[in-house]
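Protocol step 4 of 5: obtain the predicted structure for the target chain.
Materials: sequence only (see below). No template structures provided, no constraints applied. The aim of this step is simply to have a reference model before the mutagenesis design in step 5. Sequence pasted as it appears in the construct record:
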Amino acid sequence: MASTDNRAGAPAPIAPATVVALVAALAAIYFISQFLRNSVGVIAPDLERELGLGPESLGLLSSVFFFSFALAQIPLGVIIDRYGPRAAMIGSLILATGGCVLFAYAEGSAMLILARIVMGLGCSSFFMGPLTIYARWFARDRFSTLTGIQLGLGSLGTLFATAPMAFSVGAVGWRGTFLLVAAITVVIGAVSFMVIRDDPPGAPMRKVQPVSLANAFSGLFDVWRVPGVFRLLGMHFVSYSTFATMAGLWGGPYLSDIYGYGLQQRGDFLLLMALGQIVGVFAWGPLDRKFGGPKAPSIVGTLLTIATLAGFAAAGKLPEWALGPAFALFGFVCAFTPLITGHGRLLFPPELVGRGITFLNIGTMGGVFLQQSATGFIIAWISGDAAVRPVAAYSAVFAWIALTLGVALVFYLRAPNASLDTDHG
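Step 4 output (structure tokens):
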């Protein structure tokens, strides 16, 4: 691989060992974010029983992570521009550690929600920071592939939020598990401090321009004027939230209510969904180079995800033999998010890439907040006071998510078909 485009000549080569160390450190940081954002799914039934949470409270508990994450994106852009992505990520790791400790010692829903807010703020740079570094270090035609690698390796955090988390909760409880995650986060922070650099070796020192929040907000108007940005925003709004709502929130309660599965069984099935996603992001990420751009494979991925959700909704309760393959298939087909992110990267001219991707990421995380909150109300409305939620409540959630994907796809079909050969000058 090579560093980012050099207009004056060929990109300077980077030693493979340097690339491996950099990508591994960035993926480890993203591992923490993926684990924390999906960590409610397996333990949701336990939190309901221990703390008396209802479906609306459970939806809020999971979704506030994404709300604070989204709110942090605009000031995060200022911090990255002024201090660099490395400093932003190291500072964020401190917040994420504090959120884990606060969650471990929470005695009620209010403190749990506060802990999730702090976690979301702490993880807010763990995707944008790496993307900024990849944009600085590597050629533009590698961006979707690197995004796929980042998502794939980082999504091991999603995997660890399934069966491994269930095992840890069974051994030391959910409080002990979050203290363990806090300790791991400290170690990852120390390694990242030593390995990560903002720019590739030999790159000239960047001149930092003073940036204010007012400048950042005014810069959004330039982003909004880019043709097709709001059509792409709709896909960002629903694409990742589809997986996060299933794996990170309602997958565990669905398995508990409809199949009567306990902690370890829930973890095992959600593990299959996470594995499907990990395989999927590696498979979907490079397809933009095969199709001349990210739009066509993104459309295919969306249609397959809608079809899979429709199957879940129509079947209600799947036969147990089909449940594992269906979870793995769902994880795979909805893992096309690297293509959507790559489409955003190609949509903007170089001077707007950072602000543009940040704006789209607000849509991504804000979409999870609204989707998880909305599905919590759907579950509560259909279930009423039932001790065990009926299959109709979950079928309604599956159908709702499929519908929102379909609406976003209709608008996305007319988005500009940015190709890897697009030159913004």
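Step 4 remarks: The first helix runs from residue 16 to 37. The chain has one domain: 16-199+211-412.
Proceed to step 5.
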